[in-house]
Amino acid sequence: MRPPLSPSSSSLSSLLCGRGEHVKHGTTAKASECGEVSSAPHKRRAATKAWHRGGQQWSGQQDVGPARQQQEDDEMLVPHQELPVAGPEAAPQPMEVVAQTEPANTAESQPPEDPQTSRFTWTIESFSRLNTKKHYSDVFVVGGYKWRVLIFPKGNNVDHLSMYLDVADSGNLPYGWSRYAQFSLAVVNQIHPKYTIRKDTQHQFNARESDWGFTSFMPLGDLYDPSRGYLVNDTVVVEAEVAVRRMVDYWTYDSKKETGFVGLKNQGATCYMNSLLQTLYHTPYFRKAVYHMPTTENDMPSGSIPLALQSLFYKLQYSDNSVATKELTKSFGWDTYDSFMQHDVQELNRVLCEKLEDKMKGTVVEGTIEQLFEGHHINYIECINVDYKSSRKESFYDLQLDVKGCRDVYASFDKYVEVERLEGDNKYHAERYGLQDARKGVLFLDFPPVLQLQLKRFEYDYMRDTMVKINDRYEFPLQLDLDRDNGKYLSPDANRSIRNLYTLHSVLVHSGGVHGGHYYAFIRPTLSDQWYKFDDERVTKEDIKKALEEQYGGEEELPQINPGFNNTPFKFTKYSNAYMLVYIRESDKEKIMCNVDEKDIAEHLRIRLKKEQEEKEHKKKEKAEAHLYTVIKIARDEDLKEQIGKNIYFDLVDHEKVRSFRIQKQLPFTSFKVGQLREVSNKAHNAELKLFLEVELGPELCPIRPSEKSKEDILLFFKLYNAEKEELRFVGRLFVKALGKPSEILTKLNEMAGFSPNEEIELYEEIKFEPNVMCEHIDKKLTFRSSQLEDGDIICFQKAPVPDGDTQVRYPDVPSFLEYVHNRQVVHFRSLDKPKEDDFSLELSKLHTYDDVVERIAHQLGLDDPSKIRLTSHNCYSQQPKPQPIRYRGVEHLLDMLVHYNQTSDILYYEVLDIPLPELQCLKTLKVAFHHATKDEVVIHSIRLPRNSTISDVITDLKTKVELSNPDAELRLLEVFYHKIYKIFPPHEKIENINDQYWTLRAEEIPEEEKNLGPHDRLIHVYHFMKDPNQNQQIQNFGDPFLMVIREGETAAEVMERIQRKLRVPDEFSKWKLAFISMNRPEYLQDTDVVSARFQRRDVYGAWEQYLGLEHTDTTSKRSYTANQNRHTYEKPVKIYN
């Protein structure tokens, strides 16, 4: 039974019962001790953390949290309350935790600015004679607010001085007031000021908590002891320093309103990109150049990097809300996976600049990247004893500066140009002069207008064999003078007329460790004194201390609370520190920080983006008014005829494909039927009404008024099924009497179908389609009501099937046809060798068995034996074949082959085997790479043997397929991974568990010298390697590893000579170096070194153990600037594909 399709209510709102707006109200939570509710105006809270040092307990400046019981000697950081005196029957005091429901005061919801700070000194005379329980100071004003200090001279029922900061006029403030303050309270030591006790905290003051402070500020015994210096001449001096800051409400904070700038949305892990894009955007010359890159109105941002960047910069300049970066990353060719993979900001900077440099070629802005960021330096080698000097000019777009061992930027530049002496074994080979002592170094020819300094915060730790982050303190100045000390960084050929004085523009920060973290940027968009923090969507004003000093890194020392006890200060490492610095040269400041306005933006871009903005505002308005409207989706006879049998088979219509109208809920229904309606896009809406429009046509096909519907009338819809053509179509609708019988309308149905009046037809009620088809035969002699037919039900009818007729049909009746439609599945088959390309498609049934599927494939391929087909399922997440194929008859139905977790695929991969799959499954197939002993060739062989076979069987089979150097040659099988030998397989090992999917199996002849090893001979591993200059000189293995016999007393020179003969290497062998490598650290061997003395007296096969390394010189060409040395080893490289 379906709901009525025709409304009869007088207004649209009455049709939407149960679809009203749901408002979730906040609640206030309270918790109290011992089930009691406290009526006291102040609640107890304690510092949430404490550190223990030498028996002393200290509770530091931590977030204030609830504490149920005050422990002895705990320092309490609480709003004051008059605590009851503890006695034998004293119960624990109640504590109430209140969830704040009042919105923060507008004045308090502003971004942090330079706080208004004031210090108040309170001299309390005749302190020991104070006989009041609590004592208030005079009122003082900070930030336009009145404050006072409150003390309990004898303690707030504790044996400590209790001291609080109090809002002096809290009783007169309006409802809902709040104010935020950072403050410190101190008792001054009048004899030794360095022993002054000072404690600081912060608090959001409001009507519930109008005072905040320390119940156990300092022991009363120390305070009242005149020798300690706190009470002198019966006088105590109290200091309060208060900084009032407006509290930021994260949810209502408006970056544009508060700062004039907007942020960028994070797609998942794109904070590194956001910080870089903000830095580039706030370099106006760069932004202007991007705007002037030629684009057309036909370009799409998702396919054009210039247009996507122009669009992004335009929105940053003119939008009021944070901007999405999806169009830009799509233009990079990135998918969702890339957006959730955090990369290195330095690497992205280089890749993006390279790509833009290429895109700017041949345009009016060609050369902009070089003009802004390119500098040059000279690499030189100068002989000391002969007149010979070699130099090479190189360009750079950024400079990688060492952090470790350098206290600041200047120290890094000193290290950068530090002269290295080439002498001893490291002499320089000068043309015509041979090996010579020399000096090697770098000097700068010129610096760019925009100087990008990449700080090497990440490096490889050889001892720990991993990348680590360097969190050392590293200072950088607001102004950087690279002409200091008479231009010691400059080459003699440098142009000294250019003043290399730079001012800091932006600081990119990395917060976290080597395995991940968060990026954000501090930027001075106009180079004024005001800094801004760009943290994804959020932009806030910040002071210079936060932008500079707090990003130096290093350790931070928490203040000592009780200095007199000489307790060790607590230090912690700061994991947030500067990672990239951008300086702008003073002499180029006017040019770089130029004005950029709308005239710099192409007209088609302005029109496009303004239209986007108008559409966005319209959608925003619609969303705000959504509760006043509903969307009505109207289906007509035409829609049913168009969809049934093409797009849908069950039910009547897909309402997502019919006309939709947005209507006010209070609109009278009659006005809706005759009014002018505006059609809206067919997207999901919160409130929808789905209607069917009845239109009755007269003799001349003109609409006429529908006949009145009585209570006994029910509306039925009719579909006609043609078994021969396997077609289902909509033929019309009828009003019938509930007590009437189907036999009474057979003539009318034959007329609707175009049959003769006496054609015998069968009727079926269509009931449901999911999860299974339900379609039942209708008895034509029963009434509609007896058959449980009601308004809106669907009847499918067809010619009565003829028993044993001449025409054979696949689906003779409606139920069988609907069952077929429900289970049919078009499957795209791909050859496993070409997993990206569809080979052919077949229409199958989800209920087909394994045998049915392979038989259809075999028929498609013209294959006689279906058992030679092997299938592999599709991984919906990786869009690749699954690693393991489907076993012979390993699944029951086609549906089981297509389901991957909770998703269903329509792709299957196939292979045509040379033997039947059941037979193959009893065998183990190994791919073995055979290395010929005398020829420089490698051939891959597939070895197929029973699963219980051994390595010896593999070698026997392999011998029949390979060319041996002599008939008696013996073979061995090795396991190789990442250019290292991990295992020599013993002949008796079973092959069943060998995995050749990730490891390489290598077969080779055993050399004669290894067959007769002497008692002191050693069989060791030899690997090829290079040092990667871009990964802190890490060893990078490559090529084919091999085994070598080392004899007792054999020198490195003799071993190298034998290696050269073994590998048959020509002249470049002289450039190779031999090294003994242990734990991935090379020790270079001299010609006279005895090699065997380096190795332990045992067989070594472990990849992390000891081996000989052959170091090759990396002769590949270098980029114009060095590759990134800071990228984490776990990251995949940044790539921009378009």
From TrEMBL:
<keyword id="KW-0645">Protease</keyword>
<dbReference type="InterPro" id="IPR029346">
    <property type="entry name" value="USP_C"/>
</dbReference>
<dbReference type="InterPro" id="IPR002083">
    <property type="entry name" value="MATH/TRAF_dom"/>
</dbReference>
<dbReference type="InterPro" id="IPR008974">
    <property type="entry name" value="TRAF-like"/>
</dbReference>
<dbReference type="GO" id="GO:0006508">
    <property type="term" value="P:proteolysis"/>
</dbReference>
<keyword id="KW-0378">Hydrolase</keyword>
<protein>
    <recommendedName>
        <fullName>ubiquitinyl hydrolase 1</fullName>
        <ecNumber>3.4.19.12</ecNumber>
    </recommendedName>
</protein>
<feature type="domain" description="USP">
    <location>
        <begin position="262"/>
        <end position="586"/>
    </location>
</feature>
<dbReference type="GO" id="GO:0005634">
    <property type="term" value="C:nucleus"/>
</dbReference>
<dbReference type="Pfam" id="PF14533">
    <property type="entry name" value="USP7_C2"/>
</dbReference>
<dbReference type="InterPro" id="IPR038765">
    <property type="entry name" value="Papain-like_cys_pep_sf"/>
</dbReference>
<dbReference type="InterPro" id="IPR018200">
    <property type="entry name" value="USP_CS"/>
</dbReference>
<dbReference type="Pfam" id="PF22486">
    <property type="entry name" value="MATH_2"/>
</dbReference>
<dbReference type="GO" id="GO:0016579">
    <property type="term" value="P:protein deubiquitination"/>
</dbReference>
<feature type="compositionally biased region" description="Low complexity">
    <location>
        <begin position="7"/>
        <end position="16"/>
    </location>
</feature>
<dbReference type="InterPro" id="IPR028889">
    <property type="entry name" value="USP"/>
</dbReference>
<dbReference type="Pfam" id="PF00443">
    <property type="entry name" value="UCH"/>
</dbReference>
<feature type="region of interest" description="Disordered">
    <location>
        <begin position="1"/>
        <end position="73"/>
    </location>
</feature>
<dbReference type="InterPro" id="IPR001394">
    <property type="entry name" value="Peptidase_C19_UCH"/>
</dbReference>
<dbReference type="GO" id="GO:0004843">
    <property type="term" value="F:cysteine-type deubiquitinase activity"/>
</dbReference>
<dbReference type="GO" id="GO:0010078">
    <property type="term" value="P:maintenance of root meristem identity"/>
</dbReference>
<dbReference type="GO" id="GO:0009867">
    <property type="term" value="P:jasmonic acid mediated signaling pathway"/>
</dbReference>
<dbReference type="InterPro" id="IPR050164">
    <property type="entry name" value="Peptidase_C19"/>
</dbReference>
<dbReference type="GO" id="GO:2000280">
    <property type="term" value="P:regulation of root development"/>
</dbReference>
<feature type="compositionally biased region" description="Basic residues">
    <location>
        <begin position="41"/>
        <end position="52"/>
    </location>
</feature>
<dbReference type="GO" id="GO:0005829">
    <property type="term" value="C:cytosol"/>
</dbReference>
<dbReference type="InterPro" id="IPR024729">
    <property type="entry name" value="USP7_ICP0-binding_dom"/>
</dbReference>
<dbReference type="Pfam" id="PF12436">
    <property type="entry name" value="USP7_ICP0_bdg"/>
</dbReference>
<feature type="domain" description="MATH">
    <location>
        <begin position="117"/>
        <end position="242"/>
    </location>
</feature>
<keyword id="KW-0833">Ubl conjugation pathway</keyword>
<keyword id="KW-0788">Thiol protease</keyword>
<comment type="similarity">
    <text>Belongs to the peptidase C19 family.</text>
</comment>
<dbReference type="GO" id="GO:0031647">
    <property type="term" value="P:regulation of protein stability"/>
</dbReference>
